[in-house]
Amino acid sequence: MSHAPITTLLLATLARQLALPAAVHPVASGVPPEARRLLACQADVGRAARRLLVRRDLAIVRCLDLALRCPGALAGTPTSANDACLAAGAAGCAAALARAGTAERDVEDMGPRCTVAGRTSISPQAFLGDDGLAVERDAPFCPDLGTASPADASRCQSLALACQVDAAVRASVPRAVELLGRLGIALDEDGRCLGSPACGNGEIDGDEECDDGAANSDVLPDHCRTDCTEPRCGDGVVDSDEECDDGNQTDGDGCAADCTVEPGVCGNGVVDDDEECDDGAANSDILPDHCRTDCTAPSCGDGVVDPAHGETCEPPATLLCTADCRSRLPFPPGPLRARAGAPDDLARCQQGIAGEAARFFRDSRRLVERCVMGATRCVVGGGDACLARASARCVAAATRRDTLRARAVPRLGSGCGALSVDRLLGALAFADTASACPLPGSGPPTPADLLGCVLDQIQ
């Protein structure tokens, strides 16, 4: 084709202009009819994708809301098999997901629709190639599916879009997998997005090798691991049938591929000239205050809290930890008062966060879509003036998105007034979010910093 790659324009507008760098360039005049048909196909794909994102988001949030309405959903271990409230919620959830499934199938049909005779008829090569829609770039979501045909590519695209929604939901509801598991719902049976029913529920589900519930551990020997796999050589834990385990199955590093000790190298129990320590089989990258498997001493930033070395937290310079790992950063009371909070307070708080985060996700996506579609309309004969206007709209969209974020943060925590931040971090599992967020530019971290980080992960 003689036109510039449309996908390049779309991605440039989406990923670059919304972040405010250089503008895209217009295509040459006299664009052939096939390029116009490609644009029509892109518009159809965009509308179908929008429906999928909105309906799936609404469906999953609806499922979580139904689960959170049940007593003990966050505090106990009930499931739809033994709890009438969760059983009723499971029925409502299944109905919501079925409605969303229609939108997912619409996206799956886009490839065949765009490559048959009609208004949007284009060649399969145009649908798949870099000079067309380049949908094969979604292949990392489905390497087993491939993109040999437009139909395969569209199924892959549907999965990729669904994964976007699932990731956004999980950012606002870290216990989403567990809650959906209580309803008996597995959104993605192969675990590429939200995953299968919650590993850790004490029942061996799907492809799990074991599940001992709360006894699952990635630290204790001879325990089922937290990903519900059996203990094995190479998992970094020295089990009863192993002499060592350095987290791999490689010879020549002190611990052989069969987890036996190798003499003359790190891991043999002798501190050599280039080693800081060597405790042999006791070397560990998981246990506190242990020599590490590369024969270096425990240190701040190695991912393990080492109390004997003065550490109280990891990783450093995050919302939870100072740069020297010596102080867990306290959150001032702020909008979240320091009270323990009853189970229904937990549920109410999580429902509020999920609902507001879903609204932010949909509003942000809408801004992105308008930016992209505005630029798309300029591709065919629009020229520099059209693209300049589209670029200005994208800049305005980025500003509007920042405004939405600023307004959403206080609303996000408005239902959490009865909870201490420790409950937010622990019972609602936002600690991982906090540990991935950098310290604010000045002053101590606040609950608003944590909630803002949730929104940053969503967008």
What does this structure look like?
By secondary structure, the chain is mainly α. The protein folds into 3 domains: 1-30 and 330-459, no CATH class; 32-198, no CATH class; 238-312, no CATH class. 43% of the residues lie in helices and 0% in strands. It has helices at 6-16, 33-68, 84-108, 110-114, 124-128, 150-172, 176-182, 343-376, 383-412, 421-425, 431-435, 447-458. Helix 2 packs antiparallel against helix 3 (84-108) and helix 6 packs antiparallel against helix 12. The protein is globular.
Q: Tally of extended strands?
A: 0
How much beta, percentage-wise? under 5%
Largest beta-sheet characterization: none
Question: Which geometry do the CA atoms define?
Answer: globular
H-E string: HHHHHHHHHHHH
Distance between the termini: 34 Å
Structural class: mainly alpha
Extract low-pLDDT stretches: 1-29, 333-341
Domain unit count: 3
H/I helix tally: 12
Chain-averaged pLDDT: 79
Helix share, percent: 40-55%
Gyration radius (Cα, Å) is 26 Å
